[in-house]
Amino acid sequence: MAVFITHSRAETVALGRRLAAALPPGTLVCFTGGLGAGKTAFTEGLAAGLGCADPVSSPTFAIVNYYRGPRPLAHFDLYRLSSEEDLLAAGLYDYLDEGAVVAAEWSENFAALLAAEHPVTVDLRPLSGQTRQITIEGVQL
Ligand SMILES: Nc1ncnc2c1ncn2[C@@H]1O[C@H](COP(=O)(O)OP(=O)(O)O)[C@@H](O)[C@H]1O
Ligand SMILES: [Mg+2]
Fold it and tell me: Would you state the pLDDT for residue 62?
């Protein structure tokens, strides 16, 4: 487990970039932390670190955004999903099997189910103002 403190959005993006360098293909990254914690900002860094060139936007409406690149990324918002069938239908397991890195916001909804995928977990907690405590487990950084 590694605990980081970031003091700006840019620092959180940089941490995402750093994590990307340590992720094998087909890794699930499970985010926890509420609205505005910085999950999408962190994912912007992940995408950049994986070599995905397109700008990252929140997958809230699409449920999943897929970014092509040398190391592809599938970015999910699980907020409105509730069952294993929903995950299957959205293609979460397909992306993992194809070797994409899969980043999942609101993984709280599926904690037990997704634990079976041996995820890297990233928990983001606002402390004060622009400060975030970010706890990363499941990978050596
Ligand atoms: N240290 C920080 N890390 C990430 N975001 C921060 C930080 N400080 C302030 N922010 C702001 O918090 C918001 C985070 O938004 P976003 O990444 O979309 O969160 P989430 O996806 O968790 O809802 C942005 O407006 C960002 O500018
Ligand atoms: Mg988000």
Answer: 93
> Which residue lies with its CA nearest to atom 16 of ligand 1?
38
- With a 6 Å cutoff on the Cβ, whether 38 touches ligand 1 is yes
Which pLDDT score, from 0 to 100, does residue 41 have? Answer: 98
Note the pLDDT tens digit of each residue in 22-44: 999 999 999 999 999 999 999 99
Pairing state of beta strands 28-32 and 132-137? unpaired
Please indicate whether residue 56, judged by its CB atom, sits closer than 6 Å to ligand 1: no
CA–CA dist 137, 141 (Å, integer): 9
What ligand 1 atom has the least distance to the C-alpha of 33? Answer: 22
The alpha-helical segments, DSSP class H, found in 21-76 are: 39-50
Q: Residue 109: what pLDDT?
A: 86
What is the CATH code for 2-137? 3.40.50.300
Residue 93 · residue 3 · CB < 8 Å: no
Q: Which two tokens stand for residue 100?
A: 């994409």
Report residue 71 as tokens: 């190391």
What does pLDDT average to over the chain?
97
Q: Where are the domains of the chain?
A: 2-137
* Residue whose tokens read 């050596």: 140
